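Exercise 7b. Backbone tokens:
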């Protein structure tokens, strides 16, 4: 099991590595576990399209607090 970096910059580098491996394997999403929670991160436009084009309101859960200091309150999550 891989230790997820706690430093924000190291974490972004870690996600970049996961993204490159996933794209190389022909995948469109990254699945990452932090503790017991699984996060699914779309890495292609086709994977993101249903989320962006949806008319359903997306609510940020309590898990968003983990990413908020890096991403702010934008539309990314």
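Sequence design result:
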């Amino acid at each position: 099991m891989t230790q997820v970096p706690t430093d924000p910059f190291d974490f972004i580098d870690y996600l970049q590595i996961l993204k490159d491996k996933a794209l190389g394997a022909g995948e469109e999403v990254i699945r990452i576990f932090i503790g017991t929670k699984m996060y699914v991160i779309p890495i292609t436009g086709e994977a993101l399209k249903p989320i962006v084009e949806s008319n359903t309101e997306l609510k940020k859960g309590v898990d968003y607090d983990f990413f908020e200091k890096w991403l702010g309150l934008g539309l990314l999550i």
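Instructor comment: The chain has a mean pLDDT of 82. Strands lie at 29-34, 37-42.
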